[in-house]
Amino acid sequence: MAKITLDNLAHSYMANPKADDDFALKELNHDWADGEAYALLGSSGCGKSTLLNIISGLLIPSQGRVLFDGRDVTHAPTADRNIAQVFQFPVVYDTMTVRENLAFPLKNRGMDAAEIARRVQRVGKMIDMEAQLNHKARGLTADAKQKISLGRGMVREDVNALLFDEPLTVIDPHMKWELRTQLKKLHHDFGHTMIYVTHDQTEALTFADKVVVMYDGRVVQIGTPQELFERPAHTFVGYFIGSPGMNLFDAEVDGRTARIAGTPVDLGDAYAGTGTMQIGVRPEFIRLSTTDEGIPARLRRVEDVGRHKILRLEVNGHEINAISGEGDVIPEGANRITFAPEGVNVYANDWRISPQGKAA
């Protein structure tokens, strides 16, 4: 296990990068704690896999350093970093049995045969392949082969870090849930430093202690699932986390008052500066109103998704989402919306700003 430090790290696939946009991975300075589970979350092309490959040693960064427990490993080969990596598509030895595939990394390290057998049996049970341990890998399905790849990463207990690059892409939905649960248990039992790349917010939020949200080559927020939900540091985090994501309203802000679609809204706290900003409110914090208070809105349709209802509204020509409880009655004639004060965030140039006198 290792504390991973990213020091002034950046990477470009161009020979002579000049502008900020030339970098696939823009400058990062972060410490990732020993023994924590992190998820790198973002849309395709945001730099997740580039960062993971730099940490693993498959890619040398254009600038900066990678340190494991303070030791500079920036130019060290993957084999010298003592990590286990599982890729998006399965990498297995077809001529070997499932048992031999799982045992391979342990045999390479000269481990005692009895200990190898114990660990292989345990991991075989975890990935639900006990009955296939003596089968050749050649004839197995893609998701079964990926379970072997996952098992090879999980069978080692002495690694500095376990790295997963979208490992559940080819796994069926039910097995995804089972394997995520097993990975969480593995982390709880052995305390490995784990980094899990995904574009799926459910995978990230259910797997990680801390979620690292990336956008356009930058880390825009590192936080717990609760922090990402309640206080998105960037508008992309609000949009990407949640289903539906956070609503954004263009607003003129002056102190503690925002003017949205011509309607004054009390923000509850005063904000420094004046001018055009954005108000971010998650659907869970929007309420329908039949009074004269609130922002004019038109209810277009109601979608019942079982656990709750999604209200599709139109405000000033833009679609807005609200969430209502499954048993809630939609008030007839409701034509305005209000915000729960605890659910309001204010953004300037896409970055969240804090009320005056309060920390971020």
TrEMBL record:
The terms describing its cellular component in GO are: ATP-binding cassette (ABC) transporter complex, substrate-binding subunit-containing
What Pfam family does this protein match (any one)? ABC_tran
GO molecular-function term, one example from the UniProt record? ATP binding
Q: What is this protein called?
A: ATP-binding cassette domain-containing protein
- Which InterPro entries would you find in this protein's record? AAA+_ATPase (IPR003593), ABC_transporter-like_ATP-bd (IPR003439), ABC_transpr_FbpC (IPR015853), ABC_transpr_MalK/UgpC-like (IPR047641), Mo/tungstate-bd_C_term_dom (IPR008995), NA-bd_OB-fold (IPR012340), P-loop_NTPase (IPR027417)
Family membership: Belongs to the ABC transporter superfamily.
Origin superkingdom: Bacteria
Keyword presence, Membrane: yes
The answer on whether this UniProt entry bears the keyword Repeat reads no
Going by the UniProt record, its keywords in alphabetical order are: ATP-binding, Cell membrane, Membrane, Nucleotide-binding, Transport
Species source reads Pseudooceanicola spongiae
